[in-house]
Amino acid sequence: MVKFSEIKGFTFDMDGVLADTAKFHTVAWRQLAEKLGVTWNDDLQERLKGIDRMGSLNMILAEGNLENQYSQEQKEALAAEKNDNYRQLISTLTPSDVLPGMQAFLDSLKANGYLMSVASASKNAPFILDKLGLADYFVGVVDPASLHAGKPDPEIFVRAGELLKLAPEQLIGLEDSAAGIQSINGAGQTSLGIGNPQVLSEADLNFESTAEVTLAAIQAKLG
């Protein structure tokens, strides 16, 4: 494991790390699943975490054995319908929706000269960051439309590191999903999982909630 003194930057997932926009994804995907006649369940909801839009749609279709029932054009229309519903929901976000502890954590990173970028599977990440009042903290946001593969593939976190012009061993990536932790690890960065340590067992560091994440706490774990 790297030493704390080697860390120069942080790469952030967004949903479940900076804000709980996942709840809006859940509402919008569940609406679409029920429209398609697919039974919603907790396992499906968990598996959708950290997965991009088309990947999520394909999971839902597979859950209902509907993979071959829709053309690519029809799938894109369904994904667009879900996104329209989702954007209506997230338009209500304000800075008060930043998850506990994260505003203070970002302030401390900025004050101490750390660089930050966002590695979110959401194509709406810039819109959400603007609504939360967080856009100015980040050097850049990876465009998921430019990626060849989504999480757990490491590409998105590799790109997030490239935005900061830092080596992988100089970076800590924050995630709340198992797929995201795999992505960070594959990118060669130190992975910080937020949530159930059993679900995020592959994380290098683990905090059960965003409120626990501070520079001091990370330094205590890394040494």
Molecular structure report:
There is one protein chain. The chain has a six-stranded parallel sheet with strand order 3-2-1-4-5-6, sandwiched between helices. It starts with 8 loop residues before the first strand and ends with a helix. 43% of the residues lie in helices and 10% in strands. Strand 2, helix 6 (125-132) and strand 3 form a beta-alpha-beta unit. The model has no long low-confidence stretch (mean pLDDT 95). It has helices at residues 22-35, 42-47, 53-63, 72-90, 102-111, 125-132, 155-164, 178-186, 215-222; strands spanning 9-12, 115-118, 140-141, 171-175, 190-194, 205-207. With 223 residues, the protein is an alpha/beta fold. The chain is globular and about 55 Å long.
Q: What overall form do the CA principal axes indicate?
A: globular
What is the first-to-last residue Cα distance?
10 Å
Low-confidence stretches: none
Rg of Cα set = 17 Å
Indicate the structural class.
Answer: alpha/beta
Brief overview:
The protein has 223 residues and is an alpha/beta fold.
Topology overview:
Elements: E1 9-12, H1 22-35, H2 42-47, H3 53-63, H4 72-90, H5 102-111, E2 115-118, H6 125-132, E3 140-141, H7 155-164, E4 171-175, H8 178-186, E5 190-194, E6 205-207, H9 215-222
Parallel strand pairs: 1-2, 1-4, 2-3, 4-5, 5-6
Helix pairs in contact: 1-4, 3-4
Characteristic terms for this protein:
single chain; about 220 residues; alpha/beta; 6-stranded parallel beta sheet; 6 strands; about 45% helix; globular
